[in-house]
Task: inverse folding
């Protein structure tokens, strides 16, 4: 399974960062590869999130998210096209006055017909872009 962990400092309080990370329905507004997101089956601090993303081709998948306000959000794979597994987390820590240290961790397994170069490209290229998009969103007035 391909995986990666990246950490970024965001100039926004931890609560605001958490709110943006867990506002799944608005991801398409600032993440270019996300075409559509919807949620279902919310029970307490868990929710299923259904994605339609465009990475080389359109992929649909569902994850089950557990929210631990305001410090952590983690997910496990439910089902999807092309993907065999997808799990990960956001861990948030206060980092000085009004700043948040955000660590994103993901492990993903795609089908055998998906070239390794595509998997590596997603991790190496898309992950930094995604983190920067969350940072810009959280730091916006």
Result:
């Amino acid at each position: 399974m391909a995986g990666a962990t990246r950490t970024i400092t965001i100039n926004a309080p931890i609560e605001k960062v958490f709110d943006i990370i867990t506002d799944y329905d608005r991801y398409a507004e600032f993440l270019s590869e996300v075409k559509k997101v919807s949620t279902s089956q919310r029970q307490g601090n868990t929710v299923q999130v259904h994605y339609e993303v465009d990475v080389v081709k359109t992929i649909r998948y569902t994850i089950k998210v557990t929210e631990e306000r305001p410090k952590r959000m983690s997910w496990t794979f439910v089902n999807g096209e092309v993907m065999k597994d997808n799990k990960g987390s956001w861990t948030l820590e206060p980092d000085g006055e009004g700043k948040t240290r955000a660590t994103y961790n993901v492990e993903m397994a795609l089908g055998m017909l998906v070239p390794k170069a595509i998997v590596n490209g997603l991790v190496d290229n898309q992950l930094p872009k995604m983190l920067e998009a969350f940072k810009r969103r959280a730091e916006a007035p």
User: Anything to note?
Assistant: The CA atoms of residues 39 and 49 lie 5 Å apart. The chain has two helices and seven strands. Residues 116-139 form the longest helix (24 residues).
